[in-house]
Amino acid sequence: MARSWAELLGDDETAEAREEERRGFFGRLRESLSKSRRALGDQLAAVAFDPGDSESWERLEEALLMADVGVPATVELIRRLEARADLSDFNEALAEEIAGLMGEPPVLNVHHSPAVILVVGVNGTGKTTTIGKLARKLHEHGRKVTLGAGDTFRAAAEEQLEIWAERANATFVGGERGADPAAIAYDAIQAGGDVILIDTAGRLHTQTNLMDELAKVRRVIAGKLEGAPHETILVVDSTTGQNGLQQARLFSQAAPITGIALTKLDGSAKGGIAVAISHELGIPVKLVGVGEGIDDLRPFDADDFARALVSS
Amino acid sequence: MFDSLSDKLGAVLGDLRGRGRLDDEAISGAMREVRLALLEADVNLEVVRGFVERVRERALGAEVLKSLTPGQQVVKIVHDELTDLMGSESAGLKRTGFSVILLAGLQGSGKTTTAGKLARALKAEGRTVALIPADLQRPAAIDQLEQLGASIDVPVYRTDTKDPVRAATEGRERAKADGCDTVIVDTAGRLQIDEELMGELVRVRDAVRPTDIVLVLDAMLGQEAVNVAKAFQERVDFDGVILTKLDGDARGGAALSVRSITGKPIFYASTGEKLDALEVFHPDRMASRILGMGDVLTLIERAEQAASEDEQAQMEERLRKGQFTFDDFLSAQRMLRRMGPLQGILKMLPGVGSQLADADIDENKMKRVEAMVLSMTPRERSMPHTIDGKRRQRIARGSGVSVQDVNQLLEGRKVMEKMMKQVGKGKMPSLPGMPKMPGGGMPGMPGMPPQQTVAPRSTAPGAAGRKHGKKKSGRR
């Protein structure tokens, strides 16, 4: 069942609060995913799955490809399903295998103080918004948060993060437009706090000079605080196609990615690229964004994700 | 990296090519690979089906089977079909007396940045442009547009209101009253399934009466691209697309799909972060690029923009003399830098696409070579033959490399000069190891990617000179 923030952060929490949070999440994710006009389940449910029928398998393959799961992960899922003796509850079996590909429930490594989380990604995936919401959640869970506005490139990025800092009661560390993002990261760690979230400018993974800059930001963080950054989160837009794999690969070369935040899952895109990234690169999805509200950033739950993906 | 569309098609069709004769089985195998490659490239599944079917039919047709080189025939068929799919010629915005361009798209597709780029491009055409922010959703979106506007000296008409329809209409009226002939309206990003926001977009549309509605589309979109385009087409309709983030390793699958499903042309492609990185979209070139046939035309255009007229004249002079000193080398290398990231440039060269994995190293090699050249005295740079053993040692120490590296650089320059002489005589230079680029195809050159890229580019001055003249007269 859905994971709570306390579980993601490795905190203790009362069972009651946990239940409350879970119900909200499950409902919301289900609701948002079912909005998609042709949920995977619809396509499959139209004709009952028949393991002996090659057309059924073809339909499954196409449904997975249409969800951006990609060829290798699709082939693997089909291989695993074929290996199963019992496919009487097909949707259940598919959900299990998808969840299986996505690995163990992840934990956000925030148990150092200070813990540094570096947030990276290509342009327009929702990095700044994700950081804002994460800051708010961490604040709600008793952490003192510092935000480092390392996106010194995009016009008005700093203003955007500052608005979020106010909403999350966080210390804000910024710099001039065009300033060295590594210096801002340094200052943010210097400013202290329980969790230090560092925003970076969106960059395409093919821009060597910008990836070098990112590697430098990471080096400066590591030099300033041993063991940092404790998390490097790659923000991936759910509508992203197979290029998401390249993003994860190349970003990892500059700053090893420890987790994915899958955003904009409230559209009709199914975010299948997350399955591909987990499967091929072994990088877990840790957070999902399911809407515009501040509570719409959620701990990722593979089981729920898979279930929402296949049920209608 | 063996996973770009052009690589895969290259591998598949290379297979066919090796056979000499095509049988049914070979074609089926190839079509399966084409299908997978297109899916990996995010081409929509339905588009892929139709595409593969058409290619197969034509491949099985008489024109191929009778041909002596059936493999190459298939390459041609795939290319033709791709070009067909992309549309045959460049399309553009309407240029009327008073133009209103409405930008729409998903969140994060790059609307606001595109608004700035478009404003800059239209201003350069001589239009009097204004920007109107109607994105009242995203925090700081208006600030962003104002900063963009200030940097390109284009006025931004903001209205303090929570109503995007009012913001758009008032901005439009004020801009018109101030004598602007082109207004660009930036709207809030929205999910295509959000009825409320789509309804709002329709109201903005009806209020500002756009001459062109442009859908801003992320080139990295997956299968969803088609749903997005269809939804926008049904609700607001649009006249064309601006494709963003094409400077990544996005393979153009979204562009293919959207073009094929909606029939709408792609006006521009955004190819970088800087505000001048907006290019007219050329469907035929895109098809060639997808097939790994290179994009030499774009390369020449970029070289032309990167080089000042003086530099172009100098290059032509050098070519005639068949000289290539280290001074020339430095200016060529710097020009190359101005053309953008090396990877993007290499991608445009025919036959280079599949070697891109090594390109990272090359940026470092380029720096090392530059360090060596900078360690030379001006006299050494202009008269490389005077560099004797002692001088080589000094240069090696000065740039932190071994004497062997310096020797290799000096040898490489000689090879380069020979090539320049050939070009100067009007021959195409033979490029040793050209297809093997950029791993160091040239005999032992430590940093020869710059030289090798210089080679095809060095044909530019002549071509560029001609094109330059043409462009100028076209503008009037």
Give the helix/strand layout.
The complex is a heterodimer of chains A (312) and B (476).
Chain A: H1 5-9, H2 15-34, H3 40-45, H4 54-66, H5 71-83, H6 90-101, E1 115-120, H7 127-140, E2 145-150, H8 157-167, E3 171-173, H9 181-191, E4 195-200, H10 208-224, E5 231-237, H11 243-254, E6 259-263, H12 273-281, E7 285-289, E8 297-299, H13 302-310
Parallel strand pairs in A: 1-4, 1-5, 2-3, 2-4, 5-6, 6-7
Antiparallel strand pairs in A: 7-8
Helix pairs in contact in A: 2-13, 4-5, 5-6, 6-13, 7-8, 9-10, 10-11, 11-12
Chain B: H1 5-19, H2 24-40, H3 45-60, H4 62-65, H5 70-86, E1 99-105, H6 111-124, E2 129-134, H7 141-152, H8 164-177, E3 182-187, H9 195-208, E4 212-218, H10 224-235, E5 240-244, H11 253-262, E6 266-270, E7 278-280, H12 283-290, H13 296-306, H14 309-321, H15 326-338, H16 342-348, H17 359-374, H18 378-382, H19 389-399, H20 403-424, H21 449-457, H22 460-475
Parallel strand pairs in B: 1-3, 1-4, 2-3, 4-5, 5-6
Antiparallel strand pairs in B: 6-7
Give the termini distance of chain B in whole angstroms. 45 Å
- Classification by helices and strands of chain B: alpha/beta
Structural class of chain A: alpha/beta
Which consecutive residue ranges of chain A, at least 5 long each, have pLDDT under 50?
Answer: 34-39
The H/E string of chain A reads HHHHHHEHEHEHEHEHEHEEH
GO molecular function (chain A): GTP binding; GTPase activity; signal recognition particle binding
Keywords (chain A): Cell membrane, Cytoplasm, GTP-binding, Hydrolase, Membrane, Nucleotide-binding, Receptor
Family (chain A): Belongs to the GTP-binding SRP family.
Membrane topology (chain A): Peripheral membrane protein
Give structural notes.
Chain A: Keywords: Cell membrane, Cytoplasm, GTP-binding, Hydrolase, Membrane, Nucleotide-binding, Receptor. Chain A: One of its GO terms (cellular component) is cytoplasm. The complex is a heterodimer of chains A (312) and B (476). Chain A has 312 residues and is α/β, with parallel strands linked by helices. Chain A has a domain at 115-300: Rossmann fold. Chain A is 49% helix and 13% strand. Chain A has helices at residues 5-9, 15-34, 40-45, 54-66, 71-83, 90-101, 127-140, 157-167, 181-191, 208-224, 243-254, 273-281, 302-310, and strands at 115-120, 145-150, 171-173, 195-200, 231-237, 259-263, 285-289, 297-299. Chain A has an 8-stranded mixed beta sheet with strand order 3-2-4-1-5-6-7-8, sandwiched between helices. In chain A, α11 (243-254) links the parallel β5 (231-237) and β6 (259-263). The radius of gyration of chain A is 20 Å and the shape is globular. Chain B is an alpha/beta fold. Chain B has 3 domains: 3-86, Up-down Bundle (Four Helix Bundle (Hemerythrin (Met), subunit A)), CATH 1.20.120.140; 99-290, P-loop containing nucleotide triphosphate hydrolases (Rossmann fold, 3-Layer(aba) Sandwich); 301-467, Signal recognition particle, SRP54 subunit, M-domain (434 Repressor (Amino-terminal Domain), Orthogonal Bundle). Helix content of chain B is 58%, strand content 8%. Chain B contains 22 helices and 7 strands. Chain B has a 7-stranded mixed beta sheet with strand order 2-3-1-4-5-6-7, sandwiched between helices. In chain B, a hairpin with a 7-residue loop joins β6 and β7. Chain B is globular, with a radius of gyration of 25 Å. Chains A and B meet through α4, α8 and α11 of A and α2, α7, α10, α16 and α17 of B.
